[in-house]
Design brief:
With 328 residues, this protein is of the alpha+beta class. It is built from 13 helices and 12 strands.
């Protein structure tokens, strides 16, 4: 790990000012991702600004909208009674990620800002466009079993690792930030970027922009929601594919649906094509498969991860069938 200067800001505005004035500075909250990258010398910030105590660590009901402070721990989020009752998919997604020790330390804001996952990104001896733009993507011709099948580019095929972000994408969450240009609200589905020709940029945040909270709007049928995750081992593994689903069925037909995927793209993937196909059709496994196929029309897998296409189809079908109470 390279030497760095540590600062504990007194308030949000002063933290933002320090980063705005220091190109080599980064925020530190739980540090569960950043510190690992610093140990590997993938990240080498000159200054770390501690913001752990600057943002709220509370979950509040604001006229039906659930406001989650950026400093709420993953453990606190998963255990919160309002979250478990109204948005079980969110609680389940958090519990599906990491170990209890990491969940006790990781924060809501930091979880969203995890760097996209790739072994070559973490290995400074290999070319990686995310780490060194223009150096090449080792994964395309190397080991890419866990990599993207949707939204990738020639420059990068890495996937976003957060389970929580997938559930929040399905729930139409909104991220609140404060930055050098003031405050703004960003739809969570727009927070993360597809790689394009700038894979080094994971999000649309400006340098110095700080996540302060996340809003989850009311969604009555989210009480009927689930998070499913396929991984190589049951405990503490990143998703090969995950599905966050909420389903509203009336008189045997799909009245409304929310669907997002993890482990398939550079960002949490909102399955809008599948949602459009599903609304108004009978709630049957066959229609769920057709909706999955509609979403997968854009899939462009690599030779080592083409199994994910079938896996996505089966997981969408299974998750929705279970929520609808119909045979798969």
């Amino acid at each position: 790990m390279r030497p760095f200067h540590y600062e504990r800001a007194s308030d949000v505005d002063s933290a933002v000012s320090v980063l705005a004035e220091t190109p080599g500075a980064e925020y530190l909250a739980g540090g569960t991702n950043l510190v690992d990258l610093m140990k590997l010398e993938v990240a080498a910030p000159e200054v770390l600004v501690d913001v752990r105590r600057l943002t709220s660590d509370r979950i509040e009901d604001r006229a039906g909208t659930l406001r989650i402070g950026a400093s709420v721990t993953n453990s606190g989020l998963a255990a919160d009674p309002l979250v478990r009752q109204r948005f079980p998919v969110l609680s389940q997604s958090v519990l599906a990620g990491a170990s209890p020790q990491l969940r006790n330390l990781a924060t809501t804001g930091g979880n969203l800002l995890q760097r996209t996952r790739c072994g070559y990104f973490q290995d400074v001896t290999t070319p990686c466009n995310k780490r060194e733009p223009g150096s090449g993507c080792s994964a395309r011709e190397g080991f890419h079993r866990e990599h993207a099948i949707l939204g990738a580019s020639r420059e990068c095929v890495a996937t976003h690792p957060s389970d929580m972000a997938v559930a929040l994408a399905a729930l139409d969450a909104v991220v609140n930030t404060v930055g050098p240009g003031g405050s703004r609200r960003i739809d969570l589905v727009d927070l993360h970027r597809l790689p394009g020709d700038e894979p080094q940029r994971d999000t649309v945040l400006e340098h110095g922009e700080l996540i302060t909270s996340v809003d989850v709007p009311p969604l009555d049928f989210a009480v009927t929601s689930r998070y499913r995750k396929a991984r190589d081992r049951t405990s503490f593994a990143f998703a090969l594919v995950s599905v966050a689903a909420a389903l509203d069925v009336a008189d045997g037909a799909v009245r409304d649906v929310r669907l997002a995927l993890g482990g398939v793209a550079h960002k949490p993937w909102r399955a809008t094509h599948a949602e459009q196909v599903l609304r108004g059709v009978p709630a049957t496994a066959e229609h769920f498969r057709r909706a999955a196929d509609a979403e997968l029309e854009a899939a462009d897998p690599l030779p080592g991860n083409d199994f994910k296409v079938d896996l996505v189809r089966n997981m969408i079908t299974g998750a929705l069938a279970d929520l609808a109470g119909v045979a798969r």
